[in-house]
Amino acid sequence: MSTDTARAATGAAIIRNPVLRGFYPDPSILRVGDDYYLATSTFEWYPGVTVHHSRDLVHWRPLGGILTEQRLLDLRGAGDSCGVWAPDLSYADGLFHLVYSDVASFSNGYWDPQNYLITAPDIAGPWSDPIPLHAHGFDAALFHDDDGSCWLLAMSADWRPGRERFRGIEIQRYDRARGRLVGDPVTIFTGTAAGYTEAPHLYRRDGWYYLVTAEGGTSWEHQVTVARSRALFGPYEPDPAGPMLSSVGRPDLPLQKAGHGCLVSTPDDRWYLAHLVARPYSPLGKCVLGRETAIQAVRWSADGWPRVDGAVPAAEVPAPELPAHPWPVSPPTDDFDAPVLAPVWSTLRRPATPDWVNLHERPSHLRVHGGQSPAGRQRPSLVARRVAAARCVFETVMEFRPASHRQVAGVTGYYNVDNWHFAYVTRADDGRRVLDVLTSDGGRRRCYPGTEVDVSSADRLGLRVVFDGPELRFGYDLGDGWRELPVTLDATILSDEHAARVVPGEPEAWGFTGAFAGLWVQDIGADGGYADFDHATYREL
Ligand code: 6LW
């Protein structure tokens, strides 16, 4: 038995995958001293680019997100699954460097993936104004070479009909002192037969440059491909043993879609791969939890290739021999006593600013000023958190006095503009305050007979959404205990697979995010409506 296996057998230190549960895809991992950071994609949600921190690779704590203000990111009008793709964290000259793509479109063969760089002396900021890089392709990443030179890698997109849209990985010099790209881009790798070559990260070890890429597309065929070269510009030779990691052809594995990876080493030269996975509810079924982040142990072969045991994602991985560093467990209830939203919260398409997300106007409450209708992409008022387990409950107590049918508030199981379930309160034409359920499935609304409840008597109304694997139910509490609304809903419409619309040859919509549970307030007539939430609780069942 190897030392690692023995440690795993004794339950000593084990990395349990996924380490980040729920929608945390496209990880970039970085070590600075004894601190490890994971940055993940956020698409149309603020804060843009979520960061988690660890001292032992086992325990991770959320630090919130980096792109918290419109100065750093403007998501007004962003399409579903557009916005922030594939961040890359690096460290040089005493500065954290964060590169990210803000993808404005992807349709009909086009992307508009504007890449930006920001820097900060501390992971907590303050972050510089964004430096626009190029928009040649997404998944941009910096490589700081040993001689002090700095390079921008990215996938390279081709809009021309009939061409390979993923042209390969290009590299271009970045002048850190002058803050701009210099020289011409060079394509250094066009990938293997798996295709869709993207997500480049470059490392240097024992005289080799190692190029880690993702291939096969970010779904069941996803994989991590490693290629190496003696020279920066190549030629890069892919590992003759095949992909470093993939779950393709192994629907029996609990962790699927393994790909989009990034390497890190400990101070004693142990290597790990952070990568993307998904946990479908049935083999190759719907992924309501979105794409998540996992970590694998990496061994270097005698001839110098980084490998993962069996080249498949393991659910449990021996941890490095580092002092255990657990973090305080965050309580399930947020009483909204803090002056700012806790790191678990996200907001849709606009940052959490006090003009609409207010923790002061009514002490110990979250006041959410209503925003646009569910179709509005400029000013929606949705405060939500990731669904991180197949079975969980999200509940709140709401006070809401709708002045008309145009004021609507409640709890939602939400995927994107087209796919959501909503238990909402509004005002009926006869003046009653009513609770009801509405679904949007693929952009088509659906309501249910017999679900309306008169809640006029309850100034404080308990509301909850229960995710029970493939089923979703709403409940309410008028002050005398929880009751269920009499309809069982399909939770799997809140999945990456359901959101994606791929007509032959042409993806029309992608599902890159994952399900959220949230507090949603609509003031469709812009009359100044708001709702107060006394607390919100998230529990796994
Ligand atoms: C990510 C890229 C990808 O940036 O999906 O299909 C993007 N490819 O690697 C969104 O996760």
TrEMBL record:
Site (Important for catalytic activity, responsible for pKa modulation of the active site Glu and correct orientation of both the proton donor and substrate): 139
Domain Beta-xylosidase C-terminal Concanavalin A-like: 333-539
Gene Ontology MF terms in the entry: hydrolase activity, hydrolyzing O-glycosyl compounds
Gene Ontology annotations of biological process type: carbohydrate metabolic process
Keywords, alphabetical: Glycosidase, Hydrolase
InterPro entries membership: ConA-like_dom_sf (IPR013320), GH43_C2 (IPR041542), Glyco_hydro_43 (IPR006710), Glyco_hydro_beta-prop_sf (IPR023296), Glycosyl_Hydrlase_43 (IPR051795)
Catalytic residues as annotated in Swiss-Prot or TrEMBL: 26, 198
Family: Belongs to the glycosyl hydrolase 43 family.
Protein name: Xylan 1,4-beta-xylosidase
Source organism per UniProt: Micromonospora pattaloongensis
